[in-house]
Amino acid sequence: MRLSRYFLPTLKENPSEAQITSHRLMLRAGMIRQSSAGIYSWLPLGLKVLRNIEKIVREEQDRAGAQEILMPTIQPAEIWQESGRYDAYGKEMLRITDRHEREMLYGPTNEEMVTDIFRHNIKSYKQLPALLYHIQWKFRDEIRPRFGVMRGREFLMKDAYSFDIDKERARDTYNRMYVAYLRTFARLGLVAIPVRADTGAIGGDLSHEFQILAETGESTLYYDKALETQEMLEKLADLENNEGIVEKLQSLYAAEEEKHDPDNCPVAPENLKTAKGVEVGHIFNFGQKYSASMGARVLDQDGQQVEVEMGSYGIGVSRLVAALIEANHDEDGIIWPQSVAPYQVGLINLQAKNAECTKACDDIYKKLQEAGIEVLYDDRTERPGAKFANMDLIGLPWQLIVGPKGLEKGIVEVKERATGERQELSVDAIVDKLKA
Ligand code: ATP
Ligand code: MG
After folding, report:
1. Is 388 a residue whose pLDDT tops 60?
2. What is the reported pLDDT for 69?
3. Is 158 in the pocket of ligand 1 (CB under 6 A)?
4. For the chain, how far is it from start to end, CA to CA, in angstroms?
5. Could you tell me if the CB of 155 is within 6 A of ligand 1?
6. Which residues contact 50 (CB under 8 A, 6 or more apart)?
């Protein structure tokens, strides 16, 4: 993509409405634009990152055996009246009346809707386990939307739902998802601490929140440092044979401040760490709460009607964009991990008015594209200083800096955004390096 044609409305000044780094940087890097409180448009650069995160989330859900569907954003009130949550959900639910005076709502989550799909289609234990997910916009009329997409009113969530014949199998499914979550966050380059949580309004008895560490996190965590290193993650590659490891991980201590009792903490002081966390995922096993209230039953092996055991599993996909920036930035801007970067390389033409320099840049641009590397090419006639600042702000992993002086010697400068390390290489060597 040529920057001269790219819709990238960056800001030089810090927007006054932004209180935290990720919100500031997302606005400055032209990733999002607020439409009303807690509701945003995603501009090209922001959307690219959102889609990259979505892709990793999707791959890990598929790998765990979940099947993708797409449920609507607008739901009928009846199913929520059946489950008893229509009144219980309160003011966070955006309620809508259609032209026939039917009560509808913009979905804050989908337990009811997926249970409705299930009960109409699945009738036998032979069709279990069933594990369905979608990646869809949600609306929650948060009392205090803030920090940009971190706590929005409209936000993108991956939510999966599981149906099992008995508690034991439901627990296995829960553990598969637990592993899928650790793998997902690891692929995003994040350290996620799983913290045992209350099940709250969703109900049930087993739940973990996944918290990534960032100074601006809303919760304070205390945890066994073994969870941070997640050395066991590699071994979790084998989903079928991870029993012991999941149990080991789930037995390690982690608690939010309100539940942490220093006098009764099972972790030795030298192994106990504390940090702020941002919740990026939440998984629940809630048993028969919805299958009982909504009549989701199957025939078991003995021909008896039984209510299925359910779980639900959420990841805040749009919140992750902000969380990733909280975890990866410096005073100059964002530092995207390669796995989600909107482009891998920023190509900077230092003298766009110089025909030779421009020809060399055009050639490099073409070569990189042919090698399947995504490039953002700054072909504008701006000052070098402005170009450097802009590239640092938007945080692509690699910068190629091309000027007439280097070209005379046949070299181009390559800078790694994360470390600031610079190298001078020939064009071919650079293409090889970036391909690797
Ligand atoms: P929180 O405690 O942050 O309000 P929650 O417990 O209400 O979160 P869940 O219902 O478990 O959240 O939703 C699953 C995931 O969706 C959360 O882990 C979070 O990443 C994301 N999420 C929830 N609310 C918001 C929001 N208002 N804006 C952006 N993402 C959100
Ligand atoms: Mg909430």
Report:
1. yes
2. 98
3. no
4. 21
5. yes
6. 42, 156, 317, 318, 321
Output the residue whose Cα is nearest ligand 1's atom 19.
316
Question: Which residue shows structure tokens 């509808």?
Answer: 104
Pair 122, 170: CB distance under 8 Å: no
In angstroms, the Cα distances linking 354 to 64, 179, 399, 403 are 53, 54, 20, 9
Nearest CA to ligand 1 atom 27: 151
Ligand 2: distance of its center to the CA of 230 in Å? 27
What is the per-residue pLDDT for 231? 59
- What is the reported pLDDT for 159? 98
d(Cα 218, Cα 202) in Å, to the nearest integer? 21
Q: Give me 286's structure tokens.
A: 């809630």
- Rounded-to-integer distance, Cα 240 and Cα 223, Å: 27
Mutate to test the pocket of ligand 1, among 89, 143, 155, 209 (most ligand atoms within 8 A of CB): 155
Ligand 1 centroid – CA 321 distance (Å): 14
Q: How confident is the model at residue 102, as a pLDDT?
A: 98
Using DSSP, state whether 33 is helix, strand or coil.
strand
- For residue 129, say if its preceding peptide bond is cis, omega within 30 degrees of 0: yes
Q: Which two tokens stand for residue 125?
A: 């234990």
Q: What is the per-residue pLDDT across 171-180, written as a single tens digit (0 to 9) for each?
A: 999 999 999 9
The predicted-structure confidence for 300-348, as pLDDT tens digits, reads as follows: 999 999 999 999 999 999 999 999 999 999 999 999 999 999 999 999 9
| Minimum-distance ligand 1 atom for the alpha carbon of 142 | 27
Using pLDDT thresholds of 50, 70 and 90, give the confidence band for residue 31.
very high
CA-nearest residue for atom 16, ligand 1, is 316
Polymer length in residues for the chain = 436
**Per-residue confidence at 419, pLDDT binned at 50, 70, 90?**
very high
Q: How far is the CA of 19 from the centre of ligand 2 (A)?
A: 20
At 327, which helix (H) or strand (E)?
A: helix 317-327
Q: Which two tokens stand for residue 96?
A: 């809508």
Backbone angles phi, psi at 376, to 5 degrees: -110, 120
Residue with tokens 């929650």: 140
CB 14 within 8 A of CB 28: yes
Pocket flag, ligand 1, residue 151 (CB < 6 Å):
yes
Is there an atom of ligand 1 within 6 Å of 279 CB? Answer: yes
